[in-house]
Each structure stands twice: as structure tokens, then as C-alpha cells.
Amino acid sequence: MSQTRALSFATRAVHAGREELSDLGVHALPIDLSSTYPLPDLDEGGRSLEAQAMGGQPIGSSVYQRLHNPTVARFEGALAQLEGADEAVAFASGMAAFTAILLAAKQKGGHVVAVRPLYGGSDHLLASGLLGLEVTWAEPGQIQAAIRKDTSLVIVETPANPTLKLVDLAAIVAEAGSVPVMVDSTFATPVLQKPLDLGASIVLHSATKFLGGHGDVLAGVVATNAFWASEIRKIRVITGANLHPLSAYLLHRGLPTLKVRVEAAQAGAIFLADKLANHPAVTSVHYPGLTGSKLVGTQMKGPGSILAFELKGGFEAASVLMKEVTLMTPAVSLGSVDSLIQHPAALTHRVVDPKAKAEHGIDEGLIRLSVGLEEPSDLWADLEAALVKAMAAVASSAGAR
């Protein structure tokens, strides 16, 4: 995409990673499913294997799919362009990507600082001690005090899962000083937020979510500078957590519609958040578009398409609501073309320390909703009917007592 002027995000999303297709004589993205590759020269093959095992790029032959695959590399190049990163490294899942980041950071120091709330799986991995890292949990404003000589990474997620809490990334980077900051930007996508532009060193996406967008891919991807990309790629080679080329193809095929999907779903979320905020069964709505945060319109281009709300009837009301919706799919995950609704305390954040859940508002009445591409008024009719039934069930239960 050689141009004399900067291209818009929408245009880059359509063309990124496709630069070599004309030379290959194809229009649609090709899929290379090879598990192994011919070695026309033994010495060159050996050098290529060694270069890739050390986190570099192939020299001639890719040698073996665990080391490199052209289809995966095209998706990585496209995502790097959209994030404004030097490189991207794709993985078989978001948790595989997060694990590789932590293992790469551990080589620089055995201590990390993390800000809650995080995705439940991320929180669980950090709290488990499985990787041998010591974790200090800190609030924004406390990070500088929490940093030690062996601190190798500061970890934040914004918007946060599941409460949609926003973290001021420029302020976090300033607090962290020379310590690199990793941002889980899954909820925002590069459509709404560019953490690298704000000084972060590493951006993490569960590509399963918005980047895939259709509920049929499991993947993770890291966008970062050349140094961290090499360190993280080295971990991927050793652990074998590489992304399958068919998944990479589906992810790359979906990038041209990413902006359209995110913005359409965001419009639906704005509509539903306003309706929920005025419903008598709802005690509060967690949505960046309602908080008046200065970060919406600056750090984030828009409030996004994920929201959470709390029900008066607690777990009982939440359980009934989940059963009664018909258009919304009761399921974990998010960012799909269809709307997904789930209960964080019982599902995605079930394994998080109970005290941490209580401190960060992940209570029994909290529901998380990922708004899809359905007509917003249809979604509201579905949700409103389910809310009525949930409140009726709670009232009936209370009367029976």
C-alpha cells in the first residue's frame, strides 16, 4: 500500500496484509496448510530453523509450521498495521498469548504489577503463581509505589472485563516509568483505541472476540515493537502455541469489516444502555457512554459495544433473565455478530478470588452483555420481556417466603 498520503483506518483494514496477492496472481487470501516445508539446501534450512527458534524470521524455507506459516504471517502483518506496531505475533488463544507475554517478561524480572479487574482467566493465571511470577495488585495511582527493581511488566485491561472500568493509559505509562506496560485492548479493538500511541509497549487481544467476530475462531494476538515481538515469538516456538493457518485466514478475512461491525454494535449498545438505565429492575449500568468519562472521545474514539448492568433481584433475577432471553445467546465470549449475554460471577470470573470480586463490583446481580448486529429495538424487546419475567419470579419467590 504505497501511498503519498496517510490512509484511513477503514481503507487499511481492507488492504493490510494483502500487498503480495497481486504478485501471487490471486485476489482472495490463500491458505497454506503445510505442516512441513521442503529444504532445498540443508545449510540454509538449518540456519532458518535456528533464526526462527531465536525469535526471528525464516531464511528461505519456513521449515515447520510451528516455526512459521505464511497465512499466519499475513494476518500478523495486517494486525500490526492496524495497531501501529512494528510486528504482531499470533497464538492459538488469548490465554496462550498472555502466557507468552508473562514468560517473556519473567526473563527480565520475576515481579509484575497488575490492575484489577481483568478477564477472569488472566486474573486466575496471575494469582495461581503457576508461572513463578510474583504479582502486586495495585490501583491506578499506586503503581509507581508498587514497582520494584525486579518489576518487569505492568498489566492493565481497558475497558476492563466485566465492569467496563476505564484506565487512563497515558497516566499508567507515566507511573510505570521505564517498566513496560501491557494493555489488554480486547474490548476496544484498534478501531476505538491505540494503546501503543499512548506509550504502552505491548497490546494483547483475544482475537476470538471482535477480530474474529463470528464466533468460529479461537485465537490471540500480540502487537508490539520488534524487541518484544522477538522475545514473545521465541516463547511461541518453544511452547508450540502457534495459531492454525485456517484460523489466521478467517481472522484476516474478517478484518475489512472490523470497523463496520464495531461501530454498528456500538450504536446498539448506546441504545440499550440508555433503556436499561431507565428500567426499574436495573440498579445500575456500567457503560463508558454513560459515565461522562473524559477518556471517551480522547483515549477511546467511542464507548464500545459491551455493557454490564446490575439487577435488583441478584443471582435469582440474573438466572431467570438468562433463561428467558430468546434473541440473545446465553454464552460466554463477546464481540460476535450476534448478541451474547452472561453472568460474570458464575462464569468468566468464577475462579477469581471472592474478595477481589467483591472489591471490584463483580457481584451476583451483574450481567454482561455483548451487543451484536441485530436491530437494537428487537434486542430491547427481548431484554425488556425477560426483565419483566425475572422481576416476577423474584417477587413470587419473596412472597412464598
Structure described in brief:
It is built from 16 helices and 12 strands.
Protein described:
This protein has 401 residues and is α/β, with parallel strands linked by helices. The chain has two domains: 249 residues, 3-Layer(aba) Sandwich (Aspartate Aminotransferase, domain 2), CATH 3.40.640; 143 residues, Aspartate Aminotransferase, domain 1 (Alpha-Beta Complex). Helices cover 41% and strands 13% of the residues. The protein is built from 16 helices and twelve strands. The protein has a seven-stranded mixed β-sheet, with helices on both faces. Helix 8 links the parallel strand 4 and strand 5. Helix 1 runs antiparallel to helix 4, helix 4 runs parallel beside helix 11 and helix 5 packs across helix 10. The chain is globular and about 80 Å long. The model has no long low-confidence stretch (mean pLDDT 95).
Structural class: alpha/beta
| Name given to the CATH homologous superfamily of the largest domain | Type I PLP-dependent aspartate aminotransferase-like (Major domain)
End-to-end Cα distance, whole Å, is: 68 Å
Work out the radius of gyration.
22 Å
The parts where pLDDT drops under 50 for at least 5 residues are none
Identify the notable features of this structure and list them briefly.
13% strand, 401 residues, Aspartate Aminotransferase, domain 1, seven-stranded mixed sheet, single chain, alpha/beta, Aspartate Aminotransferase, domain 2, five-stranded mixed sheet
